[in-house]
Every structure is written in structure tokens, then in C-alpha cells.
Amino acid sequence: MADDLRVRPAPLLPLRDIVVFPFQVVPLFVGREKSLGALEEAMSTGGYQEIFLSAQRQAGTEEPSPSDIHEVGTLAGIIQVVRLSDGTVKVLVEGRRRGRVKRFVRTDGCYVVDVEPLLEPAEDEAELAALVREVHLAFETFVKLNKRVSPEILASVQTIDGAGALADTVIGHLPLKLGDKQRLLEQVSPWDRLTSLYELLKAEIEVLEVERRIRTKVKRRAERVEKEQYLNEQIQVLSKDGDGRDEFKSEINELEERVRHKNLSEEAKAKVEKEIKKLKMMAPMSAEAAVVRNYLDWILALPWGDQSQSRIDVAEAQMVLDEDHFGLTKVKERILEYLAVQSLVPKLKGPILCLAGPPGVGKTSLARSIARATGRNFVRLALGGVRDEAEIRGHRRTYIGALPGKIIQSLKKAGTDNPVFLLDEVDKMSADFRGDPSAALLEVLDPEQNGTFADHFLELDYDLSNVMFIATANYLQGIPAPLQDRLEIISVPGYTEFEKVSIAARHLLPKQQRDSGLGELKLELPEETTRAVIHGYTKESGVRNLERELATICRKIAREYVRDRSLTSWKISPKRVAHFLGPAKFRSGRTEVADAVGLCNGLAVTSYGGDLLSTEVSIVSGRGKLVLTGKLGDVMQESAQAALSYIRSRAPSLGLDIDFHNRADIHIHLPEGAIPKDGPSAGITMATAVVSALLRVPVRRDVAMTGEITLRGRVLAIGGLKEKLLAAHRAGVTTVIIPKDNVRELRDVPKKVLKALKVVAVQNVDEVLRNALVLPEPETFLQSPSEAVDWRTVIDRRGRQEERRGDLGPVATASPPLALEPGGSAMPPSSGQSG
Ligand code: ADP
């Protein structure tokens, strides 16, 4: 065909609103007379190969004259003709090549024209190839953006390599104006045509992109409007059907009202508003509404910036502390110093006070007094048994039944955000796999961090920096080390009997009398009676049980008073105590009734403060086994070994066989065997008890002792001297043996206690034995020629001690000393074994 460039005649079909290109197959609907004529002519056997399709200059012209028709058109083949019922004809044509009208051959009936086929000029292949590629890409983009062109068309277009063919095919798929199409048809050069097409394609793509952007924007807006409409409708439906809807509305109003009146942080406010909005969308009785409601309740119940007027007037604080507590001079002083510092700095800073001491010594009530003195509210959080970080910091809201942590819960209780916050028993926390609560507590107590304390439940920062934290502990050892770092420890050691009597008279009894409604009665508890209660019914360093017993007395009185209103004056004698409290629970004084062999009083510090702890030793025939019972810790076992080694080294002087230990088993037991015990301070007690058992010399029952022992018999310093002396005094001991290195600490011990006790300060175990064992001639004990030098100094010191101690009293020897002579057997007479 390409070579057939002859001018040929062809019937002309004028097109109104379409330009047909080569390579296009299009259906045409033909109705006009002249057009139908042209069609008939073409189909006749007149020898026409093709029909010439050419656009009218004006689509509206009904009967176009030759000048109304474009000269350039397309020679096309007729594929199919279908006559329709309305008289029109549908004809399927296929464009073949461009042509130009040379002249009109016939104009009657139909137009027949002479057509000159137009030849595409040869052009630069490489340039064309590049252009073809660009057009392919652009067309691909176009198809992607334009959903009306199917992907199959893209696939078929992609197979076209020829520039002219590509241009003509693509043009068919573009929504171009007729004028543009005609212009493209008239561009015979493929390069020119393709370039023009490329520009049009690009412009089209741009338009499509803008369209797409607009479409998505509009779509989003439409979606939003739709959603809002939907929700509003839902709310309306709900408000129509729910009885509780009105209530719900007023609940929401109330919530909004509360938000307005709360001084919420910006963050909290935004959060709360968001949650209220969510709540509005929910069904009032639904589970998720309950969750949101609970959350909102918590936030709105917290004291956001609500503060009590806090003031620190040290003089007034002193008054308050003195009013509430008897004694405790040192403790009060430390507290006042702390308050003085706090009154000078603008923000609470520095370490947290930690009141350490046994139960019932007034730690909690001191903290309460501090709150009263500083005008702050008071709240207490018991940390005993807390073992989970979430208990401090709360559970995430995703958990069912989640709650804020105890810190936040307590603040709700406090009602203000600057309370005195008592962290009770920080030593009783433990950690497990769920995270260490002490780490969370560290954050709470760190002034650098606690301005933004993050509770898991609240999911908001809460400011704890105005809270005055005070901690308490029974055992300092129980406090995790990093926490101890944050604390300023003030120890509250425990009371003497004298102090207890005064506390009972001034504080406990009046309080219990008031609490039992006996305010108007005249109630008198002589000192002797209080002592009887202390001795017979309590065994403690503090006064909690004493207070309890006094409360019992008050209750019993109340009962009798209710029965007989004339009994308005009461004086309780010591004898009547049993009437109120029943038989005594404890023996007054706790020492043994008689001096005994192998039984020695030690002194220990327990969670109740100091305590008397006796050591029992029994020797039986055996092979030198050392048995230790009574739940003794490693340190205690080692000090028992050390005591034994010392005794072995002193065997000749003690008059024992040099190998006594090979023929005897030594059993050391500390009663109350279920309670774990540890520490080095029982060293001299164990040594004394063992020596007593070996020599069968009793130990004085009114002596108690404490001290660490070394292998060479030196006595080293111990801890907790004050508590131990108080315990000894409580227990009715008269002589206490302490390490010389501890003498300095005696000034901390109440004068009255020191007056009642004889304190013997020692440097070595020999001195201990001389003071503790019931010996006929103590000053000659352990005196041997080989230790002449030692003896002199010992006797010297001994003399001085004797002066202080006064009369030793009659010496009771329970049984004759066993093998006191050097070289004698260490075994008890019952032993059947021979050495
Ligand atoms: P803790 O917290 O140390 O276990 P509490 O503070 O609960 O002890 O004290 C127990 C009771 O003893 C309280 O009623 C307290 O008022 C009273 N109390 C303790 N020490 C004194 C004291 N020095 N003066 C007056 N009352 C005291």
C-alpha cells in the first residue's frame, strides 16, 4: 500500500463530530442522504477500493458543500454494514492511510473525490525511538490515572514500535477536541505528530492528576461528613430509645462541669476532654463506657494543684512535737533541723526523712505531728508486702479492673497535692519477676524526676514535687541500698521503762480514756500499776501493746460504768490489773530463776528492739563434734567456732585436758529456735556458756553480755548498744558486760537505765568469765604462772571492777567443777568412754 501513491477516486463520507485516523476501527452511524449515497457508491461494483472519511469544518452543517469539508482525511476500508430499523446505517470502518482531496469529481447524489495519498517522510530513527519510548511511558501514566482506558489497550499499545502508527493509535484513546485531532491528522511527519501528541498527553496527565487530588480531598470530606452524620443519627437513635439517656446527658454535663472547676494540667485537660468526647459516643451502659467513666473519675478525683496552706514555723513545730510526744529529744531535734532547712528553701529538696526503729515507738505518730506542724494533710501508704512495680506505678488501662498505683491512690485520699506522705515500712518491700517496686519508688523520691511522675493507668504526668515524703523502717538492712541513699535516717530506738510510764500517764491513758468515752471520769493509774502492766503484759521496745492493754482497761471500766453510773472515780491498784487484763502473759523480768550451768544471757537486737537471748550449752561424750541449733546464720556459726578455738587455746589455764574436745560433743542451742538469728555479737555469750558447761560452773543469772570474740580472746565492739541495754534493763538484769570499744555510746543510753545497771566494759574473754561465772575466788581465776604478766593487769582491773560491783553475794555452785585441775578429764562423770 505504501507504494501505491496514485491519485484515486473515492466516495467521500463527511464526518460531523469525529476524526478517524489510520489504524483505527470505528463504527459510524450514517443517516444523511448524501452520506448514504456515498456508502452505496462505495459498496457498488464501481471499482472503488476505499471510502474517504473527512471531517466537516462545522459539525452542525447539515448539508456541507465541498468547501465545508477538510481537505485532509483518511482513506478507509468498510468492514461491515448494518441497516438499523430507524433507517440509519451502522458501518464499521478501518482507517488505512492519510489522503488529501485533489478535486471533487462528482457532487450530485453523493460526493466522489480524487484523493492523493499522503506519504510519511523519512526521519531520524534514533530520535524517533527515544520519543516513542517517552510516549509509551506517558501513555502508561495516563492509563493509570484514567480509569476509562482498560489495561488491555495499554498492553496492545505497548507492542507498537512505529512512530506514526503509535501516534495515530494513541490519539484514538485521548479525549481531544476535534480541532486538535484534525490538526494531528494533518501532520504527516511522524516526528511532528508524535511531538504534538506528547505535549497533549502531558497536559492531559496534569489535568488528571489535579483531578485525582481534588477527588481524594472531596472524598475525604464526604467521608467525614458521612461519618458525622452517621454518629449523629446514632446518638439520636440512642437518645430516643434509652431511658437512661437523660441521666447520661446530665452525667456528661456534670463531668464537664467538674473539668471546668479542676485545675488540670494542660495535658490532663486535653486527655479528659478527649475521653468525654469518646464517652458521648458510647452506649451509656456499655462496658467501655464504664472503663472511660472509671478513668475520668480517677483523674477528676485527684488533687490537681489543690494545696493546703503549708507553713513551716520551727518554733510552732517544736510545740506540736512536744505536745504529741514525750521524750525523743534527739529525734525531735533532728526533725526540727530538717524542717528548718525546708523552711529556707523554696522547694522541698534534699534527702527524705526516714524514721527507723521497732514497732510502736511512735514513727507514724511523729509523721502525723510533722503534718500537723506544717499544716499539711497526712496520708500513709503501707509498703509492707509490696512486691510488684505495678503496685506503685499502676496497671495499664488495657487490663480489666486496672487501677492507678498506690502513690496516686494515696494522693486521692490526701485530697491535696502537698501532703505529708508516709511511706511506711520501706524495708518490707520485696521484688519479684514483676519488676522491682523500689526502682519505681526511687523515681517517686527523686526531686529531679518526681515533677513528672508517670503512672501507667493515668498515662499522664503528675507532679509529686510538692509532696513531703517521710519513710519509716524497722530494719535498716531491709532497705534496698539505692533507696537508703535517698534517705536521711533518724533512728528511734525504743523506750525505757521510765519513759514508758511517763508516756502512758501523759499520752496513752488520756487518749484511751477519751476514746472510750470516759472523759468525765476521774481515772487514776498509779505508776506502780503502769509498771505492773508493762512487766506482766508487754514485751516490746515501743508502747503499742501497752496502749492496747490500757485500752482494754478503759473498755472494761466503761462497761462497769455503764452498769453503775455512780462509779465516777477510779483508782486502779496493781492488784486489780489482773482483774481487768487476766493473768499476766509475761514473767516480770525475764532472767532465769537460778544460776545455771551452761546457760548464759546474751543480748540481741530484733525487730522488737533489743531482747534478751539466752544461750544453752550441753556437753556429752563424743568425738569432738560442734552442733549448733536454733536457726543460726553463718556469722553466728563462725563465731561459735572462734569461741571454741579460743577455749581450746586456753585449755591449760582453764584446767582442761589439752585434747578435751576430742572426747566430747558440744551442742550450742539458742532458744526460740524457729526464729533465724545471726550476727557476731553472741561470741562471748557462747564462749561463756561453753566454759560454764565444761567446768560445770554456773553462770550468774543476773548478768547479760554482748561482744564479738576473736581467736585470741579479744572482745570487739558490737552494734545496737542502746537497744540492748534497754532490753537488759527491761529483763531485770543487773550487770551488763559490754566491749570496751562501745563505752563511748553509753552517753546515748538514758541516765536512769545506767543508774539501774552495772556496766562492765571488757577487752578480753577472761574478764568476761571472771564477771559472769559463779566463782569462789574470781580474782584468782585463770591465774597461772605462765601468764604472770597477764594476771597482774587482770587483777588490777578486776580490783577496780569489784569496787564498782560491790557485793557478789553468796556463790551458789550447782555441782562441783569438773576436772578443774590441770590434766583432768573434761568429760562429765556419766561418760563411759575412755580417753
Ligand atoms: P510506729 O509507727 O513506730 O509503729 P506508732 O506511731 O503507731 O508507732 O505509735 C504507737 C502508739 O504509741 C501511738 O498511739 C503513738 O501516739 C504512741 N506513742 C509512741 N511514742 C510516743 C511518745 N514518745 N509519746 C507519746 N505517744 C507515743
How are the secondary structure elements laid out?
Elements lengths: L7 E8 L9 E6 L2 H11 L7 E5 L16 E12 L5 E18 L5 E6 L7 H21 L5 H8 L4 H11 L4 H9 L3 H52 L3 H17 L4 H16 L5 H15 L12 H11 L4 H16 L7 E5 L6 H12 L3 E5 L6 H5 L12 H9 L5 E5 L12 H9 L7 E3 L4 E3 L5 E6 L7 H6 E5 L5 H19 L6 E3 L2 H11 L6 H20 L5 E3 L5 H5 L14 E2 L1 E8 L2 E13 L4 E4 L4 H16 L1 H4 L9 E6 L13 H13 L2 E2 L3 E3 L2 E2 L5 E2 L4 H10 L4 E5 L11 H6 L1 E5 L2 H8 L15 H18 L30
Parallel strand pairs: 1-3, 7-12, 7-13, 8-9, 9-12, 14-15, 17-22, 19-20, 22-25, 25-26
Antiparallel strand pairs: 1-6, 2-5, 3-4, 4-5, 5-6, 10-11, 16-21, 17-18, 18-20, 23-24
Helix pairs in contact: 2-3, 2-6, 4-6, 7-8, 8-9, 10-11, 10-12, 17-18, 17-19, 21-23, 23-26
Adenosine-5'-diphosphate binds next to helix 12, helix 17 and helix 19.
Care to describe what's here?
α2 (125-145) runs antiparallel to α3 (151-158). Helices cover 43% and strands 17% of the residues. Residues 785-835 have low confidence and may be disordered. The strands form 7 sheets. A 7-stranded mixed sheet has the order 19-20-18-17-22-25-26. Strands 1-3-4-5-6 form a 5-stranded mixed β-barrel. The protein has a 5-stranded parallel sheet with strand order 8-9-12-7-13, sandwiched between helices. It is built from 27 helices and 26 strands. It starts with 7 loop residues before the first strand and ends in a 30-residue tail after the last helix. With 835 residues, the protein is an alpha/beta fold. Bound molecules: adenosine-5'-diphosphate.
